[in-house]
Each structure stands twice: as C-alpha cells, then as structure tokens.
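Researcher: Here's the sequence for the chain we discussed earlier.
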Amino acid sequence: MIWLIKLQDRKDQQADNNTKPCFSTKFESHTKTSALMLYMTELIHNTGKIVTMDSGFCVAAGILALHDFGVFGQSLIKKRGRYWPKHVPGQEIDDHMKDKPLGHAETYKQSIDGKEFMIHCQKDDTYVTKIMSTHGLVTAVEDHTTYRFIDGEWKTFHYAEPMSRHNRSKHWVDDVNNRRHDPIGLEDVWATKWWPMRQF
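Model: Thanks. This is the structure I predict for it:
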C-alpha cells in the first residue's frame, strides 16, 4: 500500500537558505526535512502510531517534532561523509560496542529539550546498526532471527525490536518497488533455457 506521495516541481522556488520547506505547509517553522516528515504523517498525528524511515530522515529535530505531534518516528542512522548526524555520538557508540558479542543490543539515551531521545544499537558482524527514536526497547524479537557467516560457520541472533521493525518495513517497501518495476508477464521474468520450462 502506498501511504502518501508528495510530488515536488519547480525546484527554482526553494527558499534562499535551503533550510526551509520548498512547498507550502503549515509546518514552515521547521527545517525542510522535519517539515516534510510532519507533512507526510499529518493524517496520523496524535494517534501514537510508529513510522519507520530510512537514513534520509535520520534528523533528530524531525524525530522530536513527530513526538510533539503524537507520532513515534524511528530512522536508521548512517554517517554522512565524515560526520554523524547531530546528537549521534556514532564513533563513541562504535568504540563501546566493538568487543560486544554478535547480536548484543543497547540503548544510548539522552534528553533534548526535555524529551527522551534514544539511539538503539545492535552489534552486527562488521558494524553496529543504529536507529534514532523517541520510543522502544531493545527486547529481542524471538520470531525474527538473522544469520551471519563468520569464520567459516553460521551464527544466528535475534533482531532487537527497533531493528526488526526497520528490516521488516524495508522489505515491504522493496516488495512494492519490485512489483512496480518488474513486468507482470511470466514469459518476460522467467528467463530460463531449461527444456521442461521451455515446453511450458
């Protein structure tokens, strides 16, 4: 299901300093990314629903703004060039987690403008997954197991709740995109030279 689409044209109409929204919205007092996050979730404001976003929306101000409007946002955190997003001590978290076992999860908590802001972290094979949020626990989701091939053997761990929600959501988006991009005709997508298939 596609929730909402925002089409934007006339890029030349953007604000001078490029920090304010480049479309008309009642959220103009917010930065452009925060305003877009609020605009796209307006229909579920004050419902307490959870919105999972990719790393393009790992903006602490936006996550906190959603919290003010009764929506719990969570976003995957990625380093932008040499820098981590504001309020994300990424290197310190990596250093702290480097000797933890595979699948170990912790939450780094801080208070920003009187609101609890959390960075949920989980140790993976070669990196630490980080998700910013104002909600959630790092409880293991028993029915969401993942596998890693390390030092010649398979190892498993359970995703923590925020990571599980993110990974399941991202696969739903991937599935929708695949259906949209791939042709429907079986004869176009089932490319094989195996003779029983060719008879079919």
